């Protein structure tokens, strides 16, 4: 028996239980808190910035059109996002945090 990669198993689990949350950051740091702005100098781009190799989803993990996608721009996915309302409206009371 060949085991499936964890990303594929996780994706199937999320399909059964709900959708994944995806994190992205503005490459120029315009959405970053003041105390972290120094990390986003124009000559320094981090590995998890949208459009860079380190920010790509792992092979086998895909976002489908019907999935809910949240652009997380702060340390907390609940700050300045509709995540709390989406979870309550959907009746979701538990989260699995990975990554």
Automatic annotation (TrEMBL):
InterPro entries: Isochorismatase-like_dom (IPR000868), Isochorismatase-like_sf (IPR036380)
Domain Isochorismatase-like: 41-99
Source superkingdom: Eukaryota
Gene3D superfamilies reported for this sequence: Isochorismatase-like
Signal peptide: none
Family of this protein: Belongs to the isochorismatase family.
Protein name (database record): Isochorismatase-like domain-containing protein
